[in-house]
Every structure is written in structure tokens, then in C-alpha cells.
Amino acid sequence: MAMSLNQIGALSGTPIATDSGHTAGGESTTAAVSASAVWRSPPANIRVSVQKQGAEMDRLSPSPPMSPVKGGMRADLSVACQALMEAPTEEVVVREHRSGGLGGKQGKGVPVYVMMPLDSVTMGNGVNRRKAMNASLQALKSAGVEGIMMDVWWGLVEREAPGEYNWGGYAELLEMAKKHGLKVQAVMSFHQCGGNVGDSCTIPLPKWVLEEINNDPDLAYTDQWGRRNNEYLSLGCDTIPCLKGRTPIQCYSDYMRAFKDKFSHLLGDTIVEIQVGMGPAGELRYPSYPEKDGVWRFPGIGAFQCYDKYMLSSLKAAAESYGKPEWGSTGPTDAGEYNNWPEDTNFFKKESGGWNSEYGDFFLSWYSQMLLDHGERILSSATSIFKNLGVKISVKVAGIHWHYGTRSHAPELTAGYYNTRFRDGYLPIAKMLGRHGAVFNFTCIEMRDHEQPQDAQCSPEKLVQQVAMATREAGVELAGENALPRYDEFAHEQILNAASLSENDEMCAFTYLRMNPDLFHPENWRKFVGFVKKMKEGRDVDKCREEVEREAEHFVHMTEPLVQEAAVALMH
């Protein structure tokens, strides 16, 4: 997620108990690799002044880079809230209510989904806090929520051995969602849980994948100081048979195919969307701003992640093809460190910065194209596997809004988005998604410019506007998420404004972060139910805002007996 450390609130989560279990299945596919660079004409951008911090680096760009040195409450809602903070394992049966929830006809307004807790399934492949799940899902349905989003962790399902899949907890959770009439956005989470802002538990990559990384550390993303990142496999090895004879792309494909085979009876009915993880935090990006161990702090510019041998091999080939072989041994070495600001560095500074040179354009084009190629490979597989099954395919893109007002947009560049004052970095992503009919899912929808530190030139609103324009031009559906857990009406209003961009141009869905005890606190719940109602109403010219709010208050009271029934079961 793209969010600041000083903004994030504590998320609930229960430590995951460890035990094992698995079943068998899976088969292989292949994919082609492309490392070509692309060049695009520069569009106009926003002109904003930059605050300079610290001393500049010694060497100036755009001279060829030097080699880097490596090394170193009400009764009903309080019960749901309490249940979420506990971890009982006994099963409870709750009678299904068929009385329906909020909202009008399907296709009107913007449907709201709610993101499930990260630890909804335990390391023992069971449902975590089963009673709380039943009570909470029933409350969400009665409030008019369309469905839920859940992470389907690679590190849980295929944990023990390659090709051995244990879907136990997910099978139960999906059946619970079906029973309550909730749709599901299933996230193919090929990344590690833990180490990002808001991560409340730790779920590593599969054991056998970590073994291969231990044998070949270059399978992990690497910065210029030799620091390895195990959140997600380096895209440089996408087509290398480095995982027990399979390529990473084949592993991702086999996993998605096994999911399809296991849950084919729910696809297109309960499961309506497959979001394909493509990087850290499930986002299509490089791990350029890792929070773990204090490596990165908001609003640092981050660092390029292209120093594993597979990425460097591709860079070398691209430089030779471009006719500048001397540019192929390393990335920029005057781009500062994780917590620098743009004007601290010679590569990102506004005047004569290396980013705006021939060398900078070569490197940034290669770096961003590698990310696009990675997305293309996985999407080609995903769309083939889930073709004609009635599900949408989506991809999440990070809302990197800090230093957006500067010329270089340094944090976006290190993350792999070649977006600057002179170049639109989101249109190529939107066009790539459009080639596969995928949804562009974007974060930071709830943020307002004036809430962010202005000395860091944060501009989430302008960033959202740029992404909306890119998706409109590419003819791609846009969906949204909030980057931070927010329960206030200012955030809700900002989401409402962003979701209904024009009379005939609304987001296709919005996913609310996240189901936790705070959501069920009476005042937060009242605001949330009103927010869901307003989202589903959309731009209904026949209803004023006050009328919608009165109807929402009515449904808040309707929620009470439904959750109280779950509360009775929870007490026994």
C-alpha cells in the first residue's frame, strides 16, 4: 500500500499458530520473455516548487554511472467487535437471512467490498476467528455491502512442497461468503505478508521457494548496497527454471489453475473477481520503499531494485542493443538513498537531473518496461486460465503520492512507474491492462492533498485524477481502494467524489480497508453504513443527500437484530 508511517493506525490481527497439512495437484505452462525498452512522447504536467533537503551527491548525471559499492457501543456491534479481537476455533451455525440489504438495481452506483483481515486463514489452513467471521459477514451483508476481498496466500496454500495445494481454510471461508450472499474478490497473493505498512501478521513465501532463494540469493530483489528483499521473487528471473525445475511464471500459473479447478463451482457466481498479485503488497511495482527494519521512512524517495544478477543481465543486453554498453553494468549511482529527498540527489534534482538526460531516459525506460513485461506475462496466463468463467481480472497499482509535485516524481520512478513532469507513466500501464481486459485497481482514493505534508509535495488528488484520465483514454475499468483505515466522513466524502467521476463515468467497484474491530464501533459503523448506501445510490438525481442519509440510518437499526442473533450464538 502506498501510505505514510505517521498516518497509519494499528490494525487488528491475531498471531498465527503453526501446523501443517496439504493436498496434491497442479501442472505447468510456459511464457515468453521480452526485455525491450520503449520511448514515448512527453505530455504536460504540473509545475510545483521543490523543497531541498541535505547535501547533493558528488557526481553529476547524465555521465555514465559509476559501479556501486555493495555490502552492508451497542450490544450488537460490540459483540462483532469483541469476536474479532478473540480467536475462538469452535464452529457456530448462524441462520441465513434472505431479507436483502441496501441499494437499488444491480449496475447502479458503485458496489462496495470489504477487505478481510490478513490472517483470515491460519497456518493450519483453518478459518481464524470463525465465530467472528460469521457474525461480521452477516452484518456486512445486512448493511448492503456487495462482497469481500480476501488474500489467498501462496505461502499458506503451497507452503510445504511444490505442486501440493491445501485450500482447506479458503474452501470454508468461501462457503461462508456464499451462505451470506456475499461476492468475493480473490487475490492471488504471491508476496510475503509482513514488512509492509499495515501488515498485522507474518506469512512468508512457501518454504521450498525460500530454500531456493537461500541457494541463489539473486532470486530476490536487490538494491545497490546488496540488500536483499524476500517479499516477492525478482521479476528478472520470471522465465528462469529456478524453482525446482519450474519458472516463477509457471508456478504462478499452476497455482491459479489449481485454484480454478478447486473452486470452479463458485467462479462467476460467488467468486466474481481474480486480482493477480504482481509484486510487494500485491501491487505491480518494485519493492522500492521497504518499511521492514526501518530501511525506508515516509516520505523518502526509495531506491532502485535492479541489482540481482538476472536484472543486471537484462540491463547489460539492453545497453548493448542501445549502443551504449558502458551503461549496462549498473543502475544510477547518484540517485541517493532510501530516505533522501529528490533535491538531495544529482539524479532526481529538478535542474539538470540525470532523470531528464539521455542516460536517464534509457535506464528508466528499461526499468519500467521490465515491470510492464512482468505484468504482461502474468496477465496472459491469468486471462487464459479464467477465460469465459464469468470473473473479472484485476491488477493493483500503488498510489505513490509523495513528491508528486516535483519534476522527477522520484518515488514513482524507483517503484517502476516512469511518470515525470514530461511523461505519463500510467497510460502505458493502463494500455497493458487493456490488452487483457483487466481492471486497473488504484489505492489512496480517500486521501486529500491538504491532509498530506506539503513540504514533501504530496498530491494524492492530482495523482488519482491522472490515473482516471489514463484509464479513460485506454478504455480500461477503474476500481479503487483506500490506502489507510479511515472511518471519518471526510474520507468517505473524498471516496464518493473520486468514485463518481462524471455523470456516466463511475468506478466499477470500491474495496474498503479493512474489516477489523474498529469498523464495528457504533459511531464508525453508522458512518460506514451511510457511506455504503451513498456509494450504491450513485448519482441519483431523484434523491437528495439528506434522504439517502435518513435511509442509511434506518438500515443501521436494521442491522441490530441480525448481529444480535449472531451474538447469542457467540455466547454459547
Automatic annotation (TrEMBL):
GO terms for molecular function: beta-amylase activity. SUPFAM superfamilies: (Trans)glycosidases. It catalyses: Hydrolysis of (1->4)-alpha-D-glucosidic linkages in polysaccharides so as to remove successive maltose units from the non-reducing ends of the chains. Keywords: Carbohydrate metabolism, Glycosidase, Hydrolase, Polysaccharide degradation. The active site is at residues 283, 481. GO terms for biological process: polysaccharide catabolic process. Residues 51-70 are annotated as: Disordered. Belongs to the glycosyl hydrolase 14 family. This is Beta-amylase. Its EC number is 3.2.1.2. InterPro entries: GH (IPR017853), Glyco_hydro_14 (IPR001554), Glyco_hydro_14_CS (IPR018238), Glyco_hydro_14B_pln (IPR001371). The keyword NADP does not apply. PANTHER family: BETA-AMYLASE 1, CHLOROPLASTIC. It comes from the Eukaryota. Substrate binds at residues 151, 191, 199, 396, 401, 443, 482-483, 514.
